[in-house]
Amino acid sequence: MRKIFLPWSNNTLSAWLWQNNQKTIISVPELNFSCYADCESEAVFKLFSSLIQYYQELTSTPAKLTPQAIAHLDLLKTWVSGIEAKMTDKQSDDLVKQVSLTKR
């Protein structure tokens, strides 16, 4: 079992990754959230897409959220903001342009 911090979460979210029999399990204890897959890359992808989906669900019904869901939303807001900031970073944009120019 190994602990990793989720990128762009300012160390507020971590993940535990381990193997159990033939399955790879990744869990975010701060959200009481787990994903299972056949390999590590699939588990990480499932976790990423599931967390985005969970964030969208929480933001779609803010009036109906429990105190625990509000706490989860606060943690996920930090994470999503970090992702958005990275995606709009000028240096990242320049790198994408350089890569696309060199592949032509």
Q: In one word, what is the shape?
A: globular
* CATH architecture term: 2-Layer Sandwich
Proportion in β-strands? 15-25%
Q: Enumerate the strands of the largest sheet in spatial order, edge to edge or round the barrel.
A: 1-2-3-4
User: How many strands, which pairing sense, and closed or not: the largest β-sheet?
Assistant: 4 strands, antiparallel
Computed over alpha carbons, the radius of gyration is: 16 Å
Q: What is the name of the CATH class?
A: Alpha Beta
What does the model show?
With 104 residues, the protein is α+β, with helices and mostly antiparallel strands. The chain has one domain: Double Stranded RNA Binding Domain (2-Layer Sandwich), CATH 3.30.160. 53% of the residues lie in helices and 21% in strands. It is built from 3 helices and 4 strands. The chain has helices at 40-60, 67-87, 90-102, and strands at 2-5, 14-20, 23-28, 33-37. It has a 4-stranded antiparallel beta sheet with strand order 1-2-3-4, covered by helices on one side. Helix 1 crosses helix 2. The relative contact order is 0.13.
